[in-house]
Specification:
mainly alpha, 7 helices, transmembrane helix
Length: about 200
């Protein structure tokens, strides 16, 4: 089903706005997380944790879901499709993974905010704040770059759909950049497994 021009523009506008708010909130979140890690004033750190919890629950999480849903709607309602191009699949996977980790982080942060007045600084000054924030920011930047550059390369499904509409007998081939990313992902996964193995020994 193809969206009408009005609804396509509306969905695109909502997608861009929600994604930029998510990106901006994640970037603004980094100084607060650094402040929590480096400050020794218990009351100020507790207040910062409360502020972080409010930002995550009322800005970052809603805009993350809005970005995901409007992105899926745009893919399904336009000629791009959801599974026809590799860049769309990568962007979808990155967004789903980011939302999944965001939900896990939100639960932990909410627990910290609820018990902030009863714990010491060592518990509140968790380095995961920085790791989650920087990781989320990198994922959002990569997804934005994919949206702007739209690297060439159709999936096998997209190629078959294109053949249905055109009389083209060009054989299917996986783009080089997909093979390189796949190889890099396998190497990264092996490194993570090895590091995890040595940590548990």
């Amino acid at each position: 089903m193809i969206l009408s021009p009005f609804f396509r523009k509306l969905a695109l506008t909502l997608h861009v706005i929600s994604t930029m708010i998510w990106l901006g909130s994640a970037a603004a979140y980094i100084p607060i997380a650094i402040y929590v890690l480096t400050n020794q004033d218990v009351e100020l750190v507790q207040s910062a944790i409360q502020i972080m919890s409010w930002i995550v629950n009322f800005i970052i999480v809603p805009t993350a879901f809005a970005s995901l849903l409007t992105g899926v709607a745009l893919s399904l309602g336009t000629r791009w499709g959801l599974f026809r191009h590799y860049w769309i699949i990568f962007k979808l996977l990155l967004t789903v993974i980011a939302v999944f980790f965001l939900i896990g982080y939100t639960r932990g942060l909410s627990e910290m905010a609820s018990i902030a007045s009863n714990v010491d600084l060592s518990v509140l000054q968790d380095r995961e704040h920085i790791a989650h924030t920087i990781g989320g920011l990198v994922v959002l930047i990569v997804a934005t770059v994919l949206s702007v550059y739209k690297p060439k390369g159709m999936t096998r499904y997209g190629w078959r759909k294109q053949l249905d509409t055109k009389n083209d007998s060009t054989p299917y081939s996986t783009p080089r950049w997909i093979k390189r990313i796949g190889f890099a992902a396998i190497v990264l996964l092996l490194v993570i497994v090895v590091l995890f193995f040595f940590q548990t020994m």
